[in-house]
Amino acid sequence: MIPQLARLLAPAAPPVRIGIVGCGISGAAAAIAIARRMSGPTELVIADASGHFGPGFAHGPAAGRGELLNVRARDLSMVPDAPGDFTNWLAGQAAGRDDAAPESFQPRATFGRYAGERLREALSGSRNVATTLLTDEAVAAEPAGDRLRVRFRHHGCQEFDALFVATGYGTREPSLRRLGQDPYRPLDAEMAKAARNALFVGGGLTMVDSLVNLRRAGFAGAATVVSRHGLLPRPHTPRHADVKMVDLRELKSLSAILRHVRRTEREIATAGGDWQGVANAVRCQVQDVWTSFTLADRQRFLDHLAPYWENIRHRLPPELHAELDALPPEVLEGRVLEVRRRGTCQEAIVEDVRGRLAARRFDLVFDCTGYRPAVDTPFVQSLVAQGLVMPDPLRMGLAVARSGRVRSAGGRSGPPVFALGPLGRGSLYEITAVPQIVAQAAAAAEALSRLSARGRARHAASAAPWGLRSFA
Ligand SMILES: Cc1cc2nc3c(=O)[nH]c(=O)nc-3n(C[C@H](O)[C@H](O)[C@H](O)COP(=O)(O)OP(=O)(O)OC[C@H]3O[C@@H](n4cnc5c(N)ncnc54)[C@H](O)[C@@H]3O)c2cc1C
Question: Does the C-beta of 55 come closer than 6 Å to ligand 1?
Fold first, then answer.
């Protein structure tokens, strides 16, 4: 048969099947980008164990009491190539109210609602992508011929040509926090009012959420914070501040970068500017710098600089900072080794910076030590065991490229797998906040769309069976 005739008679390429496991901000951003990018027929299955599609942990369960975003409305958008989309959405919701201003810090729950709405719109408006939403937990994955097979706890198995792992902080089990109660668990108002004192383990933004919520629930006792470096969060400027910064990669070493940033900060301060502008400018370059670092430099940064960087990078909305500043907690520099129940209160064993131990009793203890990507779940562990993904060398998450495409033990011979958001923390460092996640999801969808177009072209040219290895 002549080749042209063979091609005409060949069955059309079946749709590409894409799975997204986890649908917080990372999974939702990926789905929105896929719905907009894929140019050929695509079946998309989005699974989330919680049954909520869009908000994820930070903008869902951790946002139930009006907790504020630490990013300005103007810098947030779930839609690639549409900066300012969140502000536009807010303006539509608030019908001209002042609190929709681009410079404002909105409640995280509001952002969660916006993310869910943009997700639904993108999926229902897509010409090429047919979507199934699945409320279930993925528990395992394995190669299946040219595809990947994902096993779900309740709904059996599904096979995919490409997989997005967007499981972030995992399926939430608050009771697992080691050093006190979960800061985002609903508060018992009577207990809050009756408590004489409270301990907050960790001194970052979660501590502020927790302390402010406790006080708003009626707590009037003494608040103590134990933090490794004795630092409390600092404020954002009332309006966005920025400065020009050289390409930090050109400075070649961590010490040279540090010297340059400090000098710039001094110059800005002398000129009457805000140090926050320097932090904002550095933040834009963190992925570039981190990926250019040697492993030794990354480790050195984590050992010596990370807490100071985190302190200037994660800042409070000015109004929240003013609330904290009006009644600051006692701050102890050190760490909490253990918390144990003693009658009606709890005893914390605190080690100070000189290594001295002290036992102190509190009515309430909150574990505000932060959230790490959940890589010890059955699903992620199964991906690791099958060689489909691998941990990054620092074991902070999974080894990924900037698009989130995983580096696997078997190289790139299998179907494409992307691990998005906080899961790439060790590889990219600055990848946990919404703007970076949305940019990464767009890059992933773009890469996938190119691979899929190439696969379709090959199928048309050869009439070869369509399969996932056409992606490789
Ligand atoms: C308390 C807190 C406050 C933050 N505040 C801000 C902020 O103000 N501004 C900002 O830019 N960033 C903020 N961040 C960071 C950022 O928003 C998060 O990193 C981001 O939302 C992570 O989203 P995610 O989808 O990757 O993970 P998650 O939000 O953890 O979502 C993962 C989803 O996957 C599901 N899931 C997990 N495992 C499975 C499985 N095996 N099968 C099926 N489903 C599964 C879960 O149910 C969940 O819905 C904050 C983070 C935290 C923790």
Answer: no
Clarify whether residues 338 and 449 are in a common domain: no
158 lines ligand 1 (CB under 6 A): no
Which range of residues forms the domain containing residue 117?
Answer: 3-169+372-471
Pocket probe for ligand 1: among 25, 106, 213, 431, the residue whose CB has the most ligand atoms within 8 Å is 25
Counting the structural domains of the chain, the total is: 3
Q: Measured in angstroms, how far is the CA atom of residue 352 from the centroid of ligand 1?
A: 32
Q: Which residues is 156 bridged to in the sheet?
A: 152
Question: How far, in whole angstroms, is CA 362 from its chain's centroid?
Answer: 32
Look up the CATH number of the domain holding residue 209: 3.50.50.60
Q: What is the number of the ligand 1 atom nearest to the C-alpha of 108? A: 8
Beta carbon of 369 within 6 Å of any ligand 1 atom: no
Torsion-angle region of residue 260: left (phi > 0), alpha (psi -120 to 50) or beta?
Answer: alpha
Q: Are residues 69 and 145 in the same domain?
A: yes
User: Does the beta carbon of 60 sit less than 6 angstroms from any atom of ligand 1?
Assistant: no
Q: Is residue 241 part of a domain?
A: no
What are the φ and ψ backbone dihedral angles of 213, each rounded to 5 degrees?
-65, -40
Task: For residue 29, report the distance from its CA to the centre of ligand 1, in Å.
Answer: 12
Residues 165 and 75 in one domain: yes
The C-alpha angle 231, 232, 234, rounded to 5 degrees, equals 115
For residues 290 and 443, give the distance between their C-alpha atoms in angstroms, rounded to a whole number.
18
**Cβ of 61 less than 6 Å from ligand 1:** no
Output the residue whose Cα is nearest ligand 1's atom 2: 58
Global ipTM: 0.99
CB 227 within 8 A of CB 333: yes
Tens place of pLDDT per residue across the chain (472 aa): 455 544 545 556 789 999 999 999 999 999 999 999 998 899 999 999 999 999 999 999 999 999 999 999 999 999 989 999 999 999 988 655 566 789 999 999 999 999 999 999 999 999 999 999 999 999 999 999 989 999 999 999 999 999 999 999 999 765 557 888 999 988 899 999 999 999 999 999 999 999 999 999 999 999 999 999 999 999 999 888 888 888 998 888 888 999 988 999 899 889 888 899 989 999 999 999 999 999 999 999 999 999 999 999 999 999 999 999 999 999 999 999 999 999 889 999 999 999 999 999 999 999 999 899 999 999 999 999 999 999 999 999 999 999 999 987 766 678 999 999 999 999 999 999 999 999 999 999 999 998 888 777 776 676 544 444 444 4
Atom of ligand 1 nearest to the CA of 137: 42
How remote is the C-alpha of 19 from its chain's centroid? 19
- 371 in ligand 1 pocket by Cβ < 6 Å? yes
392 and 378 in a common domain: yes
